From TrEMBL:
<keyword id="KW-0472">Membrane</keyword>
<keyword id="KW-1133">Transmembrane helix</keyword>
<protein>
    <submittedName>
        <fullName>PepSY domain-containing protein</fullName>
    </submittedName>
</protein>
<feature type="transmembrane region" description="Helical">
    <location>
        <begin position="188"/>
        <end position="209"/>
    </location>
</feature>
<feature type="transmembrane region" description="Helical">
    <location>
        <begin position="329"/>
        <end position="351"/>
    </location>
</feature>
<keyword id="KW-0812">Transmembrane</keyword>
<dbReference type="InterPro" id="IPR005625">
    <property type="entry name" value="PepSY-ass_TM"/>
</dbReference>
<feature type="transmembrane region" description="Helical">
    <location>
        <begin position="12"/>
        <end position="35"/>
    </location>
</feature>
<dbReference type="Pfam" id="PF03929">
    <property type="entry name" value="PepSY_TM"/>
</dbReference>
<feature type="transmembrane region" description="Helical">
    <location>
        <begin position="137"/>
        <end position="159"/>
    </location>
</feature>
């Protein structure tokens, strides 16, 4: 048992100094990104807001979107309708440029600002560390190790020490010496945020290893249920993409249209149940049609498998939006904890190393 405990301590130490550093970077960038809607709106009111709190009339909004698509034609790659903090329509061109338009009048409002680009780059750095191709696997792999080994080993060490006295395990002696204070901060913060960190890490790793997650979660699917319902939805008479803008969906709000890259591709429509909803389960719909207007792919929360319904909630859970403002605040604070754990853990290691070096050897 002594050897096992020593092994767990060493595992926790070296994972903390490696994966803990990456977790610290992810935590800091993620915490800042939590407030992206409020910050970008504050800095870009002329691009993202229209000065009204009333719901946007679907008929006029869709008409404006249709007219903009017809006007800009083949130069477009994507059109974003109002969603989250954005009350306006944005057009993404094939050359990478993004422009914003009023959702009712269709007037040009301006081009993408540097602050909007900053948060887009921040999200990319959060997911990939800014390293092309392999960055997401470094982040995702570290998140898995953080979830499976670093957090669990820390919980094991805490339990072995304080299972008979929980109060002591959550007590900090603020006037203690440096080493004791670092240790207390490390143990209390680690134990207090164990569950939030487990949830954030588990949901975060999904964005790198989504295929594996879906395979495992498929155990929750009804094995006796066929795909008949989905097939019945996808089999329909062909209709042009314009009809999806002229006739809004009764259950969902259209939030984006991805246009074909070439003549062989079709249109991709993305829907969400409430474009401005910031809490509760995430209910979405994805629709793809070929150049002739025939539906080739359709996923709908109402008819989707249990596994797909579950993974659809990973994003709002990961950023706390599923629990509203308080959930976002919890995730924000939780994102600041890994850097504190890394610093306190590093200090403990350095103090221990320094003491070992000072100890005379026979």
């Amino acid at each position: 048992m002594i050897i096992f405990n020593r092994l767990i301590r060493n595992l926790h130490l070296w994972l903390g100094l490696t994966c803990g550093l990456i977790a610290s970077i992810s935590g800091l960038t993620g915490s800042l990104y939590i407030w992206q809607p409020e910050i970008t709106t504050l800095l870009n009111p002329e691009l993202l807001t229209i000065g009204q709190n009333n719901p946007l009339p679907d008929t006029r909004l869709y008409t404006t979107a249709y007219n903009l698509m017809e006007q800009h034609g083949d130069s477009l790659a994507k059109i974003n309708l109002p969603y989250r903090e954005q009350q306006t329509i944005s057009l993404v061109y094939k050359n990478g440029e993004t422009q914003y338009y009023h959702p009712i009048s269709g007037f040009f409002l301006g081009k993408k600002s540097s602050s909007i680009e900053f948060f887009e780059n921040l999200l990319n750095f959060h997911r990939t560390l800014g390293i092309p191709k392999i960055g997401k696997y470094i982040t995702g792999g570290s998140t898995i190790l953080f979830f499976l080994l670093l957090l669990s080993s820390g919980a094991y060490l805490w339990w072995k020490t304080y299972s008979t006295n929980f109060t002591k395990g959550f007590k900090i002696k603020w006037k203690a010496k440096k080493k004791k204070l670092n240790y207390d901060l490390h143990k209390v913060l680690g134990a207090s945020f164990f569950i939030p960190h487990m949830v954030i890490a588990f949901t975060g790793a999904y964005f790198t290893y989504s295929t594996y997650y879906k395979t495992v979660l498929s155990i929750f699917d009804d094995s006796n249920k066929t795909k008949l319902d989905l097939e019945e939805q996808t089999i329909s008479s062909a209709k042009p993409y314009q009809d999806y803008l002229r006739n809004p969906d009764k259950e969902y709000d259209l939030r984006a249209v991805i246009l074909p890259k070439n003549i062989q591709d079709g249109y991709h429509f993305r829907y969400i149940q409430d474009r401005f909803l910031m809490e509760g389960p995430r209910k979405t719909k994805e629709l793809k049609i070929d150049p002739k207007g025939t539906i080739t792919s359709l996923t709908d929360f109402q008819t989707d498998s249990n596994s797909n319904r579950i993974v659809a909630q990973f994003y709002p859970v990961h950023i706390g939006e599923i629990a509203g403002l308080w959930g976002r605040i919890l995730v924000f604070i939780s994102g600041l904890i890994p850097i504190t754990l890394f610093i306190t853990g590093l200090k403990l290691y350095l103090l221990k190393t320094k003491r070992r070096l000072k100890t005379p050897r026979d």
